[in-house]
Amino acid sequence: MSDDSIDTTSRREFLGKSTAAVAGGLAARNAASAEAAAPLLEDGSKFQPEAFWKDRMTAPDDGKMLGWLVDTRRCFGCHACEVSCKSENDVPLGRFIRQTIYKDVGEYPKVARVFLPMACQHCEDAPCIKACPCGALLKEVGGTVAVNYNVCSGHGTCAEVCPYGAIYLDPVAKQAVKCHNCYHRLEHDMEPACVPTCPSDALYFGDLNDPESKISVAKAELEAGEGLTQLRPEKGTKPRTWFAGKAAVEVEERVPREGQSFSPDAYNIYNWKEQIDSAEGG
User: Which among 54, 66, 69, 85 has a CA at the least distance from the CA of 23?
Assistant: First the structure.
């Protein structure tokens, strides 16, 4: 990222100083969107005309294709990724950029709890970018879907169209918040905070255009073996996240959808009763 970019040290500084956190070249690519009002939608659609978002859907020509691979077979639900994400980005109580969603499967006495670490899928065809009426969402380094906080006005339309519930509106700043691949760490050749924090090495992140990268090697091995899955591919968003193991299929029904966000209710003890009733056919 260039030296003339606005400070991207952490979301902590954004919340404390109400400053922007954007990557190099962002202002130039978004000047027109920031100054011009979004076209009035008369057909009830939440999506803007292509001319309004086409440039922002195009990632910088940096030769990188950043993506995620989650090995759910390794995840044992410690929530360390969530904690590190909250600490790194000053995510307020009751809100989540990353969340591990669980489900109990099987029948007594053969039961198990499976875990699905979730965050923004950094879609190639990101509906949040298409829907944002102020032009605040855009593709950044390696295809990262990011929010320009100089432009975001908190309309919330992005959260209404995200098929994975990965966006929430900050209750203080009144702006959209989501995973941004810790771009303030990427510019220092560091991984997103959740990756090195995971004690079971369940999270892989890196450049998929580099065949020697850790994520590329793991992805190739798994695709040649038991295979990988993606979440809700029928949505046509072309997510940049792949899952190993059965958790993505088992837990999919519990993942938030359009108009929803990650919630503390995912950990509510009453969920246990719901799963027991389901297992018993009640």
Answer: 66
Consecutive sets of 10 residues in the chain, 282 residues long: mean pLDDT of each?
39 41 40 47 80 97 97 97 96 94 91 95 98 97 96 95 97 94 95 98 98 98 95 97 96 96 82 57 52
Strand partners, 65: none
Give Cα 267 distance to the centre of its chain: 20
- d(CA 124, CA 135) in angstroms, rounded, equals 17
Residues 6+ apart with CB under 8 A from 136: 147, 148, 149, 151, 152, 153, 176
Token pair belonging to 147:
């929010």
Q: Is 46 exposed, middle or buried (0-12, 13-18, 19+ CB in 10 A)?
A: middle
> Under CATH, which number does the domain 1-272 receive?
3.30.70.20
Residue 132 contacts residue 48 (beta carbons within 8 Å): yes
pLDDT at 280: 56
Enclosing H/E stretch for 69: strand 66-71
Element (H, E) at 248: helix 247-251
**Closest of 191, 220, 203 to residue 88, by C-alpha:** 191
What pLDDT is stored for residue 267 in this prediction?
A: 75
Question: Where exactly are the structural domains of the chain?
Answer: 1-272
Residue 32 burial by Cβ neighbours in a 10 Å radius (0-12, 13-18, 19+): exposed
